[in-house]
Amino acid sequence: MSLKIGIVGFPNVGKSTLFNALLKKQVALAANYPFATIEPNIGIVEVPDERLKELAKVIHNEYFNPNSSREVPEKIIPAVIEFVDIAGLVKGASSGQGLGNKFLSHIREVDAIAHVLRDFTDPNVVREGSTEPKSDLEIIEMELALADLDLIQKRIERVKNDLKKGNNADLQEELETLEKILQRLEAGNDKNGISEKEQELARKFNLLFYKPKISVYNIDEDKISSYDNKTDGNIYLCAKLESELAQLDEESALEYMKEVGIKESGLNKLIKVGYNLLGLQTYFTAGPKEVRAWTIKKSTKAPQAAGVIHTDFEKGFISADVISYEDLVQTGSYKNAKSAGVLRNEGKSYEMQDGDVVEFKFNV
């Protein structure tokens, strides 16, 4: 599985600049991933994870043969994240204004939504929407709620018509839940006490209002260092700076970030916040052929985690040899880890932990 984030925002908030930065990162990955044909509104980038490099060092030291020309590991494959751009959202998009409604179906398929909000002061860039980000966020939220409102109203009418044909307990329960959802959408921002049944229907109909959301403030470059350590759950970045960083190699990018006073790029922060928001974690497979990161939901059991690699792995799951990333790096090799007793064999009930390095045993 990969994380998919939809980018929404008014025109001229820096959304296109930010998205273009993602596309430049995507070009750099073209040789590693089979995404040769990608719609113009989709960008795919790697999930930053320093643990991959450390695991590659361990594998290299354990398996490298100086008499062979083969590189060890042959490949390092990070997890990926997909960004979907919804172009030019404006007030009234839900009723056909602008181009925003054209892409609403794409946004319904994403896992989370990133609101890009203008908080920079360039007088040469015409401001669309309001004069400050809070109002812009409220309008965007309203447009997403209105798009859902139409869908839910139609579903309510359909369920009512079906109930006229005969009493049905499941349909009656659905109607009651739909009416609760309708009340929330009409209120605009009421998200208190959401029931599991509401969440279930929200997932079924891909409702935008219920999706996890991240606010991304596009600020002036000279303010970026003062926001670097902010921990309020929002992302603060300079889209222009992100675009420039995307064109640099890793060493040059780190030097540039040091000059402007930030420790990490805004795009990397966005990915990490998205992972946390959606309850995702990473496990690794590591051998001489490849070191690879895999994305799973927290609390995923071992057989289901194996199924992320291939459905046959889940069907024929026998057990899993598991070692934590920290233990493998500390011991320096699988051989040492086994001798130290930190390499474990786990069964079907094992709940995967973030950073597990795993070899699945299966029979097909």
Description:
- Helices cover 41% and strands 20% of the residues.
- It is flat and about 75 Å long.
- It is an alpha/beta fold and 364 residues long.
- The longest helix has 32 residues, at 133-164.
- Helix 1 packs parallel to helix 7 (239-246) and helix 4 (133-164) packs antiparallel against helix 5 (169-187).
- The protein contains 13 helices and 12 strands.
- It has helices at 15-28, 51-63, 104-108, 133-164, 169-187, 196-204, 239-246, 250-260, 266-277, 302-309, 311-315, 325-331, 334-339, and strands at 3-8, 42-46, 75-77, 80-85, 112-119, 213-219, 235-237, 280-286, 290-297, 317-324, 344-346, 356-362.
- It starts with a strand and ends with a strand.
- Strands 2-4-1-5-6-7 form a 6-stranded mixed beta sheet, sandwiched between helices.
Characteristic terms for this protein:
364 residues; alpha/beta; 6-stranded mixed β-sheet; 3-stranded mixed β-sheet; 13 helices; flat
Question: What are the SSEs and their pairings?
Answer:
Blueprint: E1 3-8, H1 15-28, E2 42-46, H2 51-63, E3 75-77, E4 80-85, H3 104-108, E5 112-119, H4 133-164, H5 169-187, H6 196-204, E6 213-219, E7 235-237, H7 239-246, H8 250-260, H9 266-277, E8 280-286, E9 290-297, H10 302-309, H11 311-315, E10 317-324, H12 325-331, H13 334-339, E11 344-346, E12 356-362
Parallel strand pairs: 1-4, 1-5, 3-9, 5-6, 6-7
Antiparallel strand pairs: 2-4, 8-9, 10-11, 10-12
Helix pairs in contact: 1-7, 4-5
